[in-house]
Write a structure and sequence with these properties.
The chain is mainly α. The protein is 44% helix and 0% strand.
Length: 221
């Protein structure tokens, strides 16, 4: 049997379906099946977050405005339309949330965190987290994420990244202004209280909302 005949009789190699779900399988190792999240505190849930928010983060990683080498590398050559497709894919998903571990922090720290998240610090013109992220902290379309289901260390790390310029958003960068205005104990309090909240699987980003307390480039339509 000659080579062409052998190739003709060989079984065809199995190919994965050419779907976006197959293409984003590389995300599963860090962010879980369907973007559900994983136990590692530094890899957040992607599913159900606003598509505009996810898109902005993908672009920020690709362009180096967010610093994390694996993400910077994976996204380096992907065009905007494809990043939007990825964002819309994960935004449509709604797998069950992971169970949140108990938060063992001092009671006063949790009280302080609740106050800042729900009331802000008016004397220093720091708005409440809920005024942007929603009364139920589920986020707001098109570009503000929910804050439920995040571990304290992750929230603290992101606030720190904004404070020190390792994470930036579209101008005006409202989160940089807010994070830079918080003290270290206040960051710890906010992070702890958010992590202590139960995750309601029915909470989704709000489609509408009132005016934001300050300009925010990520929310510009």
């Amino acid at each position: 049997m000659n080579a062409p005949e052998a190739r003709a009789q060989a079984p065809a190699a199995e190919r994965a379906p050419d779907t976006l779900e197959e293409r984003v399988r590389a995300c599963i190792g860090c962010h879980g099946v369907q973007g559900r999240g994983v136990e590692n505190v530094y890899f957040p849930r992607l599913a159900g977050k606003p598509a505009g928010y996810l898109y902005n983060q993908l672009v920020a990683f690709r362009d180096g405005r967010r610093k994390y080498v694996p993400m910077n590398y994976l996204l380096a050559y992907l065009p905007d339309p494809y990043l939007m497709q990825m964002a819309q894919h994960f935004a449509r998903l709604d797998p069950p949330p992971l169970a949140q571990p108990a938060v063992d922090r001092p009671a006063q720290q949790l009280v302080d965190g609740r106050r800042i998240v729900t009331q802000g610090i008016p004397a220093r013109k720091i708005p409440a987290c809920a005024s942007c992220h929603g009364a139920g902290l589920g986020g707001r379309e098109p570009g503000i994420p929910g804050l439920l289901g995040l571990r304290a260390d992750y929230v603290s790390a992101q606030l720190g990244a904004w404070r020190y310029g390792l994470r930036t958003a579209l101008a005006p960068d409202c989160m940089q202004v807010i994070a830079a205005s918080l003290t270290e104990p206040e960051v710890a309090a906010v992070s702890a209280w958010l992590a202590s909240l139960p995750v309601d699987p029915g909470v989704r980003p709000a489609k509408t909302g009132g005016a934001l307390p300050m300009g925010c480039g990520s929310q510009a339509r």
